[in-house]
Each structure stands twice: as C-alpha cells, then as structure tokens.
Specification:
Elements lengths: L7 H20 L5 H8 L3 H22 L3 H4 L1 H21 L3 H33 L6 H28 L6 H17 L27 H31 L6 H21 L5 H24 L3 H29 L5 H26 L5 H26 L2
Keywords: Cell membrane, Membrane, Transmembrane, Transmembrane helix, Transport
Pfam families: MFS_1 (PF07690)
GO molecular function: transmembrane transporter activity
Amino acid sequence: MSAPRVRHAAGFWIIAVTFLLVMAYSTVPTPLYPLYQQRDGFPAFTITIVFAAYAIGVMISLYLFGHVSDWVGRRRVLLVAVLLSALSALMFVFWSDVPGLIVARLVNGASIGILTATATAHLGELRSVARPTENSIVAASVSGAANLGGLALGPLIGGVFADLLPDPLMLPHVVFLVILLLAAVTLQLVPETVDIPADPPRWRPQRISIPPRSRRRFVIAAFGAFSGFAVFGLFTSLAPTFLVTTFQQGDHLLAGATTFSVFAAAALGQIVLAGVRLRIQLTVAVIGCAVGLVGVAIGAVTPALALFLVGGVVAGLGVGLLFKGAIGTAVAVADPARKGESLALMFLIAYAGLALPALVIGAVLLIEPPTPVLLSFVAVVLATTVSAGLLMRRAAR
C-alpha cells in the first residue's frame, strides 16, 4: 500500500465530494432530453430507451464489478468509475445522435454501478480510521447524502445550463468532463483502505441471494424498493415530457428543479428522520406516497402545476423512507456472511424498478395521450408503494 498524501479525514471528504459529483453528472441530462428530442425529432419512447440504458448499465456493472474493490482496492476501482463517467461525457460531446446517447448512458450507468458500493465502503473505512470512536451513522449519512444529493443536484444543474448558458447540449458535458478528470487526479491523494492481496482471488460475478430464513420479509422489502424506484423513474425520465405536453411548460430549469425537488425530499427525509423508529418511518412513507401520488394525479387532471410539483415532493419523501426501510430490512435479515449478496440483489431489484416501468410508459405513450397514461401509472405505483409500506411496517414489529 503506497503512503497516503493526505490524512484519512481529508480523504473522507475527497471521496464524498467525488461521489456527489459523479452521481450529479448521471442526472444532468434529465432536463436536456426535450432539447435532444426537439433537435432530432424522435418520439418520447426514445427518451425512455436512453434512460433505461442508464439503469441497465448500473445493474450490469453492479452485478459484475460491484464487489471487486474488496481485493483490487477501493481507490483503484473508484478511479475506473470516475474515468468511465468522463468517457460518457466525451461520448455526449462527440457522438450525440440517438445511438450515441444510448451508449453514453449505458457507460454512465456502468460507472454508477461500480461507484456506489465502493464509495460507500471507502467512506466508512476512512471515517473509522479518522474518528475511531465515532458512531458509524455519520459515514452512512454522508454517503446517503452524496448519493441522493448528487442525483438531486444533477437535473438542477442541467436545467441551469439549458436555460441560462449557451450551447446546452455541449457545454455541460465539457464542464463535467473537466471536473471528472480533476476528480480522478485528486483521488490519487486518498489513502487506500484495503490490503491488496499478493494472490488475489479469481474474478466471478457478484453472488446474489435471498436470506432463506427471512424470505418473506426480504421479498416484501424488495417489492417496496422496486415500486419506490418506479416513482423515481417517472420523474427522472418522463417528467420533462409531461411538463411540456400536459402543462405547456417548456422551461428546462423547471424540469430540472422538479426532479431535484423529488430526490432532495427523499434525501432530506432520510436524514431528518434517521433517529426515528423504523415503524414510524414506514408510517410516514406510506402517508407520503399516498398523499403525494394523489396530488400528482389531481395536478395532472386539473391541470394544476403547483399541486403536481408539491405532490412529487411529498411522494419523494415517502419513497426515500420506503427505500431506506428496504435497505435496512435487507441488512437486518441477511446472513452476516452473505450480507453483500443480499444487498446486491436489493439494489438490482431497485434499479429494475427504475428502468422497466419507464420503458412500459414510454411504449404506451406512442399510442395513448399522456394524461391517461400518467394516471394509470400513478394508480399502479400508489397501490404498490402503499401496500409494500404497510407490509414492511407490519413485519417490523
């Protein structure tokens, strides 16, 4: 292990900021999709394909490489993740037609799948060395804030580029390319926290498993993660299109702010209610999902943009707590020796919820008007999120 150039405390914040930046870039294109659509004239379904490529990239890389930092080293794997994200920025700059967008989002998703588990582990290890007597919840909270906070900031940044700065289909990718390359250089200053073995184990895909003694609780939690991420998928992939078609709002900053508010509410709810008992958190999650999604539906029908936006924020709060409960359940019921396998399966199911429903909605939008499609989707996710939350709450006794 090479001698570190910064202390573990400083390295902790370098990893946290890098985590935030890479996650933010992954959602920067959200408010830009209507601009690509306007330029190239493709249907809304193409946007869902581009978005789904990202989720598929996350799932594939999480399954294949999410665990290799245990023997390759945290810093080395994080460097690969950041450079893959930079490569996707290059693709956006030089290959921006539809095939290029799909491949760029696939590569970007791959970087996120590699990044999330590795950065989370690295943050925990760096903090435990820097502050050995501190509760581990601090590192977990910073990790969660970087993850969801980055996802929230990206659309807002993309909206600023789209409405206030020149060349919005080029400039944000160039700016983030420079930022990501600087982050890759800065990563070299961070201490390694894994002793890399001289004879590393042979690579194999990440094992995934359902805890056999708590199968029912795990399946219920996975159901909640899938349905909750379906709500995120709606606001990440299709919200800008709905704002244009249903509310006649072509403001790209508004589209970015809408997605930002949903993810920010999810992140804030997890932080504010971190010390509250799980059953209470799940009660808030059920109420938030129910009230918020009803508000989204009424806002779409009326149409009332303010109600639609407030409903999205309230639903985001509920989904954030629902997903936190799902991850907490997976950790609680997993065999200690196979905890990583159970968490990997939970994340794979969650990202499937991000991609598959959005693809279905995009396909239906080819033949049906947007408002009935939105209402049908809201009805389904309302039923699934509330049902999952109630079942998880009952199992948490």
